[in-house]
Amino acid sequence: MAAQTALQQRIITERNKAHEIIRQARLSIERSRNKITSLCSQPVSEWIERQVSEVLPANIAAQEEAIILAEQRIADLGSGRLNREICEEIEEAKREQEEQSDKSARKATKKAAKRNNLFRDSSFNPEQKQVFNQWKDGERQSRREINRAKGDLRRGEQYFWRVVQDFDSKNMAQNLKKMPNNRGYRYRGIDFYGELPAEFDETTGQPMPIILTESSKGQQLIHEITRDFHRTFRKTQRGRGGRRELISETPRKPVGGFNIMDFAVKKKNRRR
User: Fold this and answer.
1) CB neighbour class for 7 (10 Å; exposed up to 12, middle 13-18, buried from 19)
2) Element (H, E) at 8
């Protein structure tokens, strides 16, 4: 069961990486084509001719090849062709992690033994022994907190994958294939997003708000997440476009002076 969960997790990660490669490659192709159009309108020079005839077309070709390889990898991940290769990589990473953990444990044991030998040295006076004991108690407390944090992380990861497996067994998982990336579901505290490209405001080029639907205690909630606010609505009428009631509004504070919406790709306005 654990191996199957690790495999599913790795497949999702690899699929997301491939989608990101495709997205970045398409952006690079669009930028190169726009640059060619811009350069063609400028006075001819040797550098411009080289950019238009060699450099930029070569970049477009390389990015198109990257898209083909990424799409092939997504297909292989979906068909299970890469399962054996991924399992071998997981086992190899697990062995390396265990070796590193054993090495760290041996190093810590050796270091602790050295400190204990110093502690037994008769040259320590009572005051030094007291300081040493205080330090030792602090070290023990730190190790307990680290182990507790590792346990919380492990339990959180196990809970996450239980929820993912439960969600995959429901019809909502199939709906994600037809939904844009800024819409989805919130299920047992985990957010699931659509697989299609995100929607943009045609007038401003800004990404549309994130809309997540959640069923909680017999009620249907709608989470609307924008750059500045997280609003939660209770749906009072069934059906799409039904009435809804605002039940909470929470400001979203940037972390470290940044807002995650700053990094969303903005769609350029195009004249029709």
Assistant:
1) middle
2) helix 2-40
For the chain, give me the number of helices (H) and strands (E)?
6, 6
Residue 269 has a pLDDT of 45
Structure tokens at 86: 């991924």
Q: Computed from CA positions of residues 231, 177, 167, 17, in that sequence, does the dihedral angle turn out positive or negative?
A: negative
**Is residue 19 a contact partner of residue 74, using CB atoms and an 8 Å limit?**
yes
Q: If 0-12 CB within 10 Å is exposed, 13-18 middle and 19+ buried, where does residue 35 land?
A: middle
In which residue are the tokens 């006076």 written?
A: 125
Q: Which two tokens stand for residue 121?
A: 């040295």
Burial class (CB in 10 A: 0-12, 13-18, 19+), 232: buried
| Three-class SS state of 265 | coil
Spatial neighbors of 94 by CB under 8 A, at least 6 apart, are: none
pLDDT digits (tens, 9 = 90+) for 184-226: 999 988 888 888 888 888 777 777 889 999 988 788 899 998 8
**pTM for this prediction:** 0.46
Work out the mean pLDDT of the chain and round it to a whole number. Answer: 80
Cα(206)–Cα(265) distance, rounded to whole angstroms? 8
Place of tokens 């708000």: 209
Burial class for 167, CB neighbours closer than 10 Å (0-12, 13-18, 19+): middle
